[in-house]
Amino acid sequence: MTLARQLFNRRMLWMLLGCLVVFGGIFGFKFFGRYMMNQHMDNMSLPPATVTTARVEQQRWQTRLSAVGSLRAVNGVNVTTQAQGEVKAIYFESGQSVDRGAVLAELAAAPETAQIEVLEAEHRLAERDYKRIAELYKKGVATLRELDQAQAILDQVVANLSVQRATINERIITAPFSGQLGIRQVDLGQNVAPGDAVVSLQQLQPIFVDFSLSERDFSRVREGQGVELTAAAIPEQVFQGRITAIDPAIDPRNRTFLLQATLENAKRKLRPGMFADVAVKVEKFRSVLVVPRTAISFAPYGNAVFVIRKSQNKDQQRGRGGQKDGKGAQPQPQPEWVAVKRFVKTGEERGDLIEIIEGVQAGEQVATTGLLKLRNEGGVIINNDNPPPDQLAPKPDNS
After folding, report:
1. Percent of the chain beyond pLDDT 70?
2. Overall pTM surpassing 0.85 (yes/no)
3. In total, how many domains does the chain have?
4. 6 located within any domain
């Protein structure tokens, strides 16, 4: 029994050793194959990426103070009623442009108009009584007291007539200034009370923009200084204006001061309530290095550009005259241009351009498209047939 167990144990041992050898060979072969594949992938040259390029340019930019402003009408009100009554007539359409003094609506005034006729009759009677007593006074028949009483009655009737006419005029709603009407807020036959809005009225030409600057810039601005304005609602146009008022006080809560600029708005594109980016033109100019904004690779750990330069391997290959390497194989052709990643510090943006404070030099060539396909020291092919826009003040194609 002991001899049989020994033979069984030996057989099991040889079977285990055989399994180890077989599986070890399989795993060793797979590991070797994966290693060779990785070596091949690491040594395999990737195809060059096609990019567009632009030169780093040196320009002179005028110093500007930037702020966010809010547009406001020179005059803007809700036209309201001064009297109570029923809307008898409406003489305007929503969105219509009107002149100062134009009649917008009228309230019913039948009792007031009838009262005018009564007062006019009283006026005629009082005027005749005064003239008759004045003649009698000249003849010495009437006394001065009677003349004064007739004069007082006449003056009282005239005053009552003026009050009644003013009451009727309050029922005629007119435009206080020239401008553009909003949406009508009353209907025919509606009973309105004093202070109820009839329609909004805005004077759009010219138009104000109110904005704030830091107190450290107080000495750098003055009335008459030029400003540029862009609005998100009208991205294709830049509006010009002038500073027309500067608040003399600094707000102690945020250490800013308020300014107001006036802009021409002949085409009525700017509207009250719009937010706008305002740039105050300061006379000082500065020299800056700029590239198209598309050349910047933005990242949380730092912005970068890809500088395009001549490939050194390409020059060495030309020097060898296309000779074979030591293994007798023809070397792979090297790209003429390579991309070198370089971190930069960016500054102000204007239009399609962005300022580079440090990281590049004037005249260097940077990639402007295809950045996601680039790797450091990777080959590139330059194709500038369709470059991205690089305008300081871009305009739409149909402008």
Report:
1. 88
2. no
3. 4
4. no
